[in-house]
Each structure stands twice: as C-alpha cells, then as structure tokens.
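Re: [help] complex structure
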Amino acid sequence: MNFPNELKYSKDHEWIKIDGDVATVGITEFAQTELGDIVFVDVDTEGEVLEKEEVFGSVEAVKTVSDLFMPVTGEVLEFNHNLDETPELINTDPYGAGWIIKVSISEINEINDLLDSKEYKELID
Amino acid sequence: MKKLVLSDIHEQLGAKMVDFAGYYMPIQYDGVKIEHNTVRNSVGVFDVSHMGEVFVEGEKALDFLQYICSNDVSKLKIGDVQYSYFPNNDGGIVDDFLLYMVDVNKYLLVINASNIDKDLKWINSNNKYNCEINNQSDNYSLLAVQGPKSIELLQQLTKEKLSEIKYYNFKKVHIAGIEDVLISRTGYTGELGFELYVRNEDVESLWKSIFNTEIEIKPIGLAARDTLRLEKGYCLYGNDINERTSPIEAGLGWVTKFNKNFINCDNLKDQKNGNTVNKLVGIELIDRGVARKDYDIIDEQNNIIGIVTSGTMSPTLSKAIALGYIKKEFSKIETIIYIKVRNKNIKAKITKLPFV
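Output below.
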C-alpha cells in the first residue's frame, strides 16, 4: 500500500497535505480499502470553523458509514464537489482526485501532532 | 468461528473475510459494485456453505411439516422447492427457509446459518410426529451460481439438460465428475441461477471446475449478495423479519396458507384479514444520503411513523434504496416520507417492489 512521504497522517486514517496555511484532507489508501466501494460523501460544513477531531462529514460505503474527523482546527474552505457525482474517486485516486476538503489551518502547531508516513504505517501494521 | 471448506481459496483470491453468523466468510473480493454487476450481467458464484441443511424424515413428515410451516407442503411433488417460514407462537417468525421434497416422507430444510441451533430446538420441541431430524449442516457445502450466463456455464459440466429444471425445481445430478450433487434452480439474486448442494469433500473440486469452463466467472461476496437481494425486495432474516415481526406485515401472506392447521394460524388469519398496523415497503431516497437499518422514518411533523430494516446504495439504479416498516396509512406508493439520517431529515418516497 502506498503512503506518500510528503503527506501527514491522522490516527483516524486521513492524510493531510500542507501548503502554507491551507491543508488538503482525504482518506488514506488503507481507509478506502477497508471501507470498500464508496457510494456517497456527505460534507455540509463548508464555511464552518471546526475544532480538531470534530466531525466534518461522513463517507458511506455500500455496507457502512464512517465519520470524517478534522485533523486540525480550522475553517472548511472547500469541499470537493466532484465527489457528489463520482464518490468512487476516493477508491481510485485517494491521494489525488479523491481529496475531500481544504481547510485553513488556525493552529499551525497542531501539525506536529500528526504522523509521518513511517509512523502511520506502524499504526496500521 | 467455523471455517468453510474453501476458506483458504477465498483468501488466496483476495477476499476480505468477516465473521458472519459464526462463520468466517468472504464479504468482498474485487469490490461490491463490480461483483454486483457481474451477477446482473454475466455470472458469479457465491460460497454460501454456512447455510443449514436439515432433513426431516418419517411416515408423518408431511403432517409434521404442515403443522410447523406456513406454506402448504401438500402442494409439493418430489423435485419441488417451496419458500416458507416457521411462525412462532407470538405472531413472529422463527426463521424463513426453502423446503425441498426429496422423496415420499423425506424433506430437506435449508435454513439460515444464524438460526441453525435455534431452529433445531424449535423443530425438535414441536416434533410430536416421531420424525427423524437429521442436521447435515456441517457435512454439506453450498455454491450458488447466479446470473444470466449461469445455465450456459453449468451445462458445460454436465450431460443433464439444465434447461429442463424449472424455477423452484431440483434434481440430483452427475456434474463436474461428482455424483449426487443436488442442483436447484433457486437463488437470492433475482437472476437466472442455480444452487448446488455438494458434500464437503467434493466442494473444492466443484469450485475449481466452475472456474475452468470457457465462460468467465467471478467469486461474489456477502456484501453483493445483500445488494442483489435488496434490489429485488427479498427479506433478510435478522433485518427485515425476526421473532417480533409479523409475517403478514412483512408481505409473506403469499406463503401463508390457511387451508390447514398450523402453529399460530388463528392469529395470522386475523392479521391477514386486515388486523395489522404496519407494512413492509420499498423506499427510495429523493435527497442525497443512505438509509441504514434502524434509522427512524418520520412524517413532515417529525412524528415517528416507521423504521428502516435494510438499506443500501443500489449499484443498478445508483440510488439509495431501503426496506422498512411503516404505518399502513403511509404505505401508498409515491407517499413522501423522511428518514432520520443522524442529524438530518432526508426526503424519500414509498416505491413499489422490486426496485429492479
């Protein structure tokens, strides 16, 4: 399984790509494999400021639903609306076209609590 | 947890394995959608060896089965299959199953894996007819070959004319070099298909032969089995029916026959004559979302009017569909209702069954 080195990871199986004070967030290859075919992504928190570990949405697979948690505190700037019509992008390209939200990071220090790819691999092994 | 004979093979095929009804079962191989579409458009095979096989034999076997089953067993000829259920004494359902007439005075019940122990207790406690009850669940495997190409594929493995086996009929055949395989034109997918009951020692050889014809076939997991049956509106025991649900409310009136005396028949007859409160209906979501088991169904004023018993995203329709019990006055087709999906009320409507 692929866990790119340039990304950070949360214990809730999200990846975070940091670009200045904006973070792009999605779910990891491991998470999408565990969930199976994603059929619906529900995010209605665009524009809201949420605390780290608050729920910002959910992903529905055929058999299960899982909450999505904020990996850092910040405002949800944008939801990837391509997922409305093609939620399976999360399965086919979890680190690319399957990104879920962009967040403006309020507490830059929180980044230090995230895992790097080696630590994340250890977590799921 | 019990293991299927083929569990190593499933793992080698990349299946995700889960505990289901106490069995270590393949839930998914390549992905639910692709497996689902394979069965709808071509052919797939399910290892459903967890299902229970119980033989009932004796001079009074027919009388006994008439007493414990809802359907009219006297209608069966040798080689016929019948869908039926065991009513309990309180208006609910002990289990639903297929009943095979194997011979004069000899029948086979194919029951849900999760209910094997419970059913045996129930059958034995009601056996005032001196029938011999023979649980063969641990000795038989069951492969379901389902999809429009199933007949073409299986025909390559046997000289028996499979097209002559009618829907809900079965035959003992010689297939793939194996004697005495019970092949039944039944299934849980709504597609053309067959179920093959085979002794455990022969199942690996049968499985391999099924994958060795000129027709491509995929293994299908339990997740797609669920989406396939739900699109057809088939009840699943433990979800849509259970010890507390009324078979009449569940729409099983068609397999409840009152031309004979059977357990709790007076109560059920009263229900069939209109004395019910709820109805199991098909639901299609209009707003985006997925309804799941146990979500509340509400009206516009937020009053609870029902409950979802099964729900999924339909791979065929790309729409969220569900089954649920709802107060009869809301059960008309096209009635607008709402499903409480966590903190939101999702608009939905009553839809006729089957969905597909």
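Chain A touches chain B through 13 residues (CB under 8 Å).
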